Amino acid sequence: MTDQIRILCVDDERNVLRSLERIFLDDDYEILTASSGEEGLELLNEAQQVQVVISDYRMPGMNGVEFLKEVFSRHPESIRIVLSGYADTAAVVAAINQGKIYKFIPKPWNDDELRVTVAKALEHFQSHRRNLQLTQELHLRNEELRELNASLERLVTERTSELMRQNRALLHARNVLNYLPVGVLGLSYEGEVLQINREAATMLGLEGDLLVGRSMRETLPPELCDMVQSISDCTCGYESLTINGGVLQIKGSILAEKVQDGIILTIMRAALEKRSCSELDQGETA
Q1: What homologous superfamily does CATH list for 5-135?
Q2: Alpha helices by DSSP H, 47-110
Q3: What is the pLDDT of residue 99?
Q4: Contact 104, 88 (CB under 8 A)
Q5: From 44, 46, 125, 200, which residue has the greatest number of CB atoms within 10 Å?
Q6: Contact partners, residue 258, CB within 8 Å, separation at least 6
Q7: Given this model, what pLDDT does residue 273 score?
Q8: What is the pLDDT of residue 256?
């Protein structure tokens, strides 16, 4: 215990107060004395912290139990001890709960027993205060945890909402891609199939849903793979390839965005295009 220990002794007899002071001469306690309950309450209000209050039961005006009851009301953390003669025992025991009294010590007391009682009272005080501190710390941690959980819930809700929005956008983009009148095939630089629309799968004679995530060498026609390997520029012109029994016009483009990169192939049926590859390039440039 690092705080200064203060003990308040209240008795209307001066010699009793001097006796109590002598008992604790060898202890590092600050002993406060008062000759009445009213004076004791004034000292309690002025002192920073009084750990133990010892009061005689029989005092003029406010008796010891009444005084300690008031002490409990104003300073509930202080440990309260009452001194009383044998003739007062029954009355003190009957009234002891009114003042939330820690210990009743009969007069005349044994000095060693009184010192032990005070030492245990101080231990009780320290334990009670530590429990209060732990309770406050636990309450604070619980509040912080509740705030953290609330913040996480908000974050999860926001993130879930964002993911749902992105999923809807991706689904919409995929549907739009499937309804395009030209084939679109997306590949990574490593040759993994990332996207293929319905028109591209039809023209290549492939099952589009089974291609995504697989290597182009395992799934795409060899001549198309060779063309992909030859793409080194940002964009190349249309090339004619005979695939799946038909002539296709295929154009390769390099996709180089901040979060995405790869190769995009645009595929058209030559039968639907009456122009040559050079005318297609010129028309696109125009």
Answers
A1: Response regulator (3.40.50.2300)
A2: 64-74, 89-95
A3: 58
A4: no
A5: 200
A6: none
A7: 44
A8: 74
- Tell me the chain's radius of gyration from C-alpha atoms: 46
Q: Cα separation of 20 and 206, whole Å?
A: 103
Residues forming a β-bridge with 249: 240, 268
Q: Tell me whether the omega of the peptide bond preceding residue 76 falls within 30 degrees of 0, making it cis.
A: no
The CA-based dihedral angle spanning residues 178, 179, 185, 188, taken in that order and rounded to the nearest 10 degrees: -50
Longest C-alpha distance within the chain, in Å? 126
Question: Angle 31-33-35 (CA atoms, 0-180°, nearest 5)?
Answer: 170
The pLDDT of residue 261 is: 81
Beta bridge partners of 261: 256
Q: Is the pLDDT of residue 174 over 70?
A: yes
How do residues 26-66 score in pLDDT, each as one tens digit? 899 999 999 999 999 999 999 888 999 999 988 988 988 88
Collapsed DSSP state (helix, strand, coil) of residue 115: helix
Strand stretches in 91-135, DSSP E: 103-107
Residue identified by tokens 């032990």 is 116
Closest CA to 253 of 219, 220, 281, 222: 281
Mean local confidence (pLDDT), 225-247? 80
- Comparing 75-84, 101-110, 224-233, 244-253, the range with the smallest average pLDDT is 224-233
Q: Tell me, what amino acid is at 234? A: C
- Among residues 225, 176, 181, the alpha carbon closest in space to that of 203 is found at 181
CB 108 within 8 A of CB 131: no
The closest alpha carbon to 31, from 51, 13, 54, 7, belongs to 7
Q: What is the CATH number of domain 180-285?
A: 3.30.450.20
More confident residue, 277 or 10: 10
User: Do 201 and 207 contact (CB within 8 A), yes or no?
Assistant: yes
